[in-house]
Amino acid sequence: MTVRGNIDLHHSRSTAEADRRGNLREIKSLLLSELQEKLREFAEPSYRAGQIMNWLYEKRASGFEEMSDLPQALRARLAEHFSVSKLHVVRVLGSHDTTLKFLFRLSDGNLIESVLIPASPALYGQKSDRRTACVSTQVGCAYGCKFCASGLDGFSSNLSANEIVDQIITIESASGQKIDNIVFMGMGEPLANFDNVMRAIRILNAPWGLGIGARHITVSTSGLAPQIRKLADEPLQIRLAISLHGATDEVRNQIMPINRRYNLEALLSACDYFVERKKQRLTFEYILIARVNDTGEQAHLLVRHAHRLSAKVNLIPYNTVQGLPWSRPSLNRQEKFLSTLRRHGISATLRREKGGDIDAACGQLRLQTKREELASA
Ligand code: SAH
Ligand code: SF4
Prior knowledge:
Blueprint: H1 3-21, E1 25-26, H2 32-41, H3 47-58, H4 72-81, E2 82-83, E3 88-93, E4 100-105, E5 111-117, E6 132-134, E7 138-140, E8 155-158, H5 161-175, E9 181-184, H6 194-205, E10 217-221, H7 225-232, E11 239-243, H8 249-255, H9 258-261, H10 264-278, E12 283-288, H11 296-309, E13 312-317, H12 331-343, E14 348-350, H13 364-376
Parallel strand pairs: 1-2, 6-9, 9-10, 10-11, 11-12, 12-13, 13-14
Antiparallel strand pairs: 3-4, 4-5, 5-6, 7-8
The structure holds S-adenosyl-L-homocysteine (SAH) and iron/sulfur cluster (SF4).
């Protein structure tokens, strides 16, 4: 699917979204100020909004009837206007001390996936005792990168803010672990669902919400240059990861259709702007794909781009997707690429097999389940 197709789909989406949610608003999509405003309309004191947020994000209430310190009449009124969303857990793969992969069903029947990574020493410079959630932002993806499972079926819909927040809440309740680091690296292109993603980030970051520090939230993009600039203008100090995967237009054009719209220079100059505004280092993600982007020449050009932005580089051996022709280079070749970067002073990591489970977030579990469902239908 083309990028232009994505934009058209966004327009038709808003009516679909209203339909599937009926007249009730999802309360977990609201900011504190918006809930306070609503309570003013109800002629209720605004401190009630804080109580409600506490029930939702601290006590994890699943309905208004549980909110025992609210007057009965208010609970009934809230239930007339709002719903409390819930994700249905379809599958959990993995064990408690390793990566856990979750497949969720949304209220409209669509499938999305998230991953819990218990410890991530090599992930974006965070401390190794962090528990990271890798979350989805869309159902499918319109950007159609040639190596990625998420884009195979094209784009279906944007996730709402509460569907994004619910992934973290549900992972915590299902695993019994507290999440303290979030990466938007599951299914979908976060910057193509900018408003809902930013709203979710505000809720995840807020003291009345999940209280996760902005520096522990990383947004990953395939290269939507204008939205990178928009993100740079946002006040929150969230981190940015760029899915580069090629150090020249030639290589990026071959595997990432987005590059025909925003070429490498357009992308890098948006990154310059981000770094300048945020005074923050960003990360280049670089999947190593055999015979596509793993040459010495690509490594040397990547060094140049990383120096320009003082960026860190995260090398990821390609995770094979059933039905796609790509494969990862030999271990020897991966190491060689890494050592070229390091020799030139770039701070770079190579994700080894063990932590590589995160890559299964990119639509692969969903794809597998959809295929199984089709096979048994
Ligand atoms: N759309 C955003 C975020 C989701 S993808 C983006 O592209 O950045 C998260 C990361 O996983 C991206 O860097 C993506 O390129 C990578 N990825 C996708 N398929 C992969 C695969 N089969 N093996 C390894 N990494 C993959
Ligand atoms: Fe979409 Fe990212 Fe996959 Fe590209 S890599 S198809 S942008 S999810």
